[in-house]
Amino acid sequence: MRNVFRRWCMASVGISLLVGVSLILAGPAESGQFYERHGVAIDGYDPVAYFEDHKAVKGLPTLSHVYQGSTFLFASPAHLAVFVQAPERFAPQFGGYCAYGVAEGVKAAIAGEIWEVVEGRLYLNHDPQVQAKWKAGRSALLRAAQAKWPEVESSADVYP
Q1: Full-prediction pTM beyond 0.85?
Q2: Are 149 and 94 in contact (CB under 8 A)?
Q3: Cα separation of 73 and 40, whole Å?
Q4: Does position 31 have pLDDT exceeding 70, yes or no?
Q5: Calpha distance 73→79 (Å, rounded)
Q6: Which residues are within 8 A (CB) of 59 and not within 5 positions of it... i.e. 6 or more apart?
Q7: 96-118 pLDDT, tens per residue?
Q8: Helices 128-136 and 138-153: angle between axes, nearest 10 degrees
């Protein structure tokens, strides 16, 4: 009886360790209002840099701010301060998901270096080919994305 109990205890400990390691490796849940990967919004790019520097710049983990549940990173204290004053001005449209994807009715992952500012709004895209399609039909696609966003926003599925 003692051996059976010992085996049961060892099996329980093993299962507990596996579950614990799995939870650690899975990382934190991404629960903010914006596209997140590895716990940060928009691939860790500084949203202010698109407007101020006119290029995609990675932010620093030491310069972060949580906006609508998502953590944004910044390349400089000045960019962080500007964002904190008016986050809605710099936050990407459509939750930071691919604007073309939203026009097609899906949430799609983005590449932070594939972007465009149009009429003071930041739009991100999945890859260069998708961005070319976005730019070619921007007006119609923007109207479609705006119409579809309320439904797309509630979807839990994200196209990789």
Answers
A1: no
A2: yes
A3: 7
A4: no
A5: 9
A6: 40, 44, 45, 46, 49, 72, 73, 74, 75, 79
A7: 999 999 999 999 999 999 999 99
A8: 110
E-only strand ranges, the chain:
36-37, 40-41, 60-67, 70-74, 107-108, 115-118, 121-124, 158-159
What does the DSSP 8-state code read for residue 96?
G
Residue 82 C-alpha from the chain's centroid? 20
As a dihedral over the C-alpha atoms of residue 70, residue 38, residue 46, residue 117, rounded to 10 degrees, the angle is -80
pLDDT digits (tens, 9 = 90+) for 117-132: 999 999 999 999 999 9
Tell which residue, 83, 126, 81, 128, has the closest CA to residue 106: 126
